[in-house]
User: Fold this.
Amino acid sequence: MFGFPNLYRQVKEWARTGLITNDKNLSNWVIRIAEEWLLPIYEEMKNVLSVKTLLHIDETVAQVLNRSDGKRAKSNGVGGIFGQF
Assistant:
């Protein structure tokens, strides 16, 4: 999930700061954010980009050097850039 901790780990981390919730609540929040906030952005980007005659898309793979959890990096990350003409 793009470098984010599993939801049950997030629940434990938040509990240490005093915020009590559960992974079901977090899961519902993730779904709601995706549907209400991210889907409209995705749809608008798709509409804007679909009318262009030429798109340039670059995906660059890079090794993850510093993990947020302090463990040794073993994987690669992918960054994407979209250009329209």
Observations:
- Residues 9 and 23 are 9 Å apart (CA to CA).
